Amino acid sequence: xxxxxxxxxxxxxxxxxxxxxAFAPAAWxxxxxxxxxxxxxxxxxxxxxxxxVHFSPAQAIADALVFSLAGVFAARTLGGRxxxxxxxxxxxxISLGLLWLAPDLxxxxxxxxxxxxxxxxxxxxxxxxxxxxxxxxxxxAVALLLKTVADxxxxxxxxxxxPDGVRIEWRxxxxxxxxxxxxWWITSRRQxxxxxxxxxxxx
Length: 203
Hints:
- This protein is mostly helical.
- It has helices at residues 7-21, 26-32, 36-40, 46-49, 57-78, 83-101, 112-129, 134-152, 170-202; strands at 34-35, 107-108.
- Strands 1-2 form a two-stranded antiparallel ribbon.
């Protein structure tokens, strides 16, 4: 009997694919990256492929590490049900958000948008299970918000893992956080009636 894939295995597979593709031929990277004109011509696979390719191996490794660590906690927060579907919808939502909100964006690569979504989900999960850590989590959230503002103002240029001429796309991070919040809200709304039903049955 086949068992459903564990959610942390899905996280590991996505992270491993991102690192492996960092060493792929340049033609592969260009074929998968977010390219506004190409997407509008119908190359819709780029909505997902853009999250798996990067501008440098260092960027890929850094994004994969953050995504993996946060993703494991996020998967435990949401449970394994429909985890793959959630990742696919989150990736497409971030890309569509960039398509709509960033008309000046020519190309985008990176797992950091999805990492932002999983970071938010992981924070919520840890805060719910360990209330004593909530003050620390709030300070972490403030630090990430300030970093996003710095990225938007161009103050963090040259401090990351991107090659010269490539800037941090802060809008992907902001969209990732919004997608993560929406993901948690939808999941919590689905779980609440189920929890009430179990409580009534036990009562």
